[in-house]
Design brief:
Blueprint lengths: L2 H48 L7 E7 L2 E6 L5 E7 L2 E6 H49 L1
Helix pairs in contact: 1-2
Length: 142
């Protein structure tokens, strides 16, 4: 095995490993984005359902980790929404749903872009795999 070929194999293998890690990270991020989309879709459905709830109706409010509290609806058309930097604003039901719909759209666009990157990276990875195979084959025949 020539030193030059050995170095090329090592370089391609390092590139292969790095790209594999990047693909794994992209796929993990895609899963997080999918979870966010599902959560926002669920919130949107809840907002639509709350529009029909009458004033003073008692409901259970989920606080997290299977903990709920009883609450009464004061206004089923007014919501307080965090818009970033610890800033809260009042929005009516329609506006709140529009905000969530826009967030879902942005996340879907991000997901689509990331899926394209994963496909491209997998294609590049396959090319590196093939190239490594040829280099190893060439090396074993020398």
């Amino acid at each position: 095995m020539s030193q030059k070929n050995k170095e090329k194999i090592q370089s391609k293998y390092a590139e292969f490993q790095l790209l594999s890690q990047q693909i794994s990270q992209l796929e993990e991020h895609l899963n997080v984005v999918a979870e966010q989309i599902n959560e926002l879709s669920s919130i949107k459905n809840n907002l639509n359902e709350l529009k029909e709830v009458k004033r003073d109706t008692e409901i259970l409010v989920h606080l997290g980790h299977n903990i709920f509290t009883k609450s009464k609806i004061v206004d089923s058309n007014e919501f307080i929404i965090g818009i970033g930097a610890s800033t809260l604003v009042k929005k009516n039901s329609k506006d709140a749903i529009e905000i969530i719909s826009e967030q879902v759209k942005e996340l879907n666009d991000l997901s689509k872009t990331m899926k394209t990157k994963v496909i491209e990276a997998n294609s590049t990875l396959q090319g590196l795999h093939d190239e490594l195979g040829m280099l190893m084959e060439k090396d074993s025949s020398e």
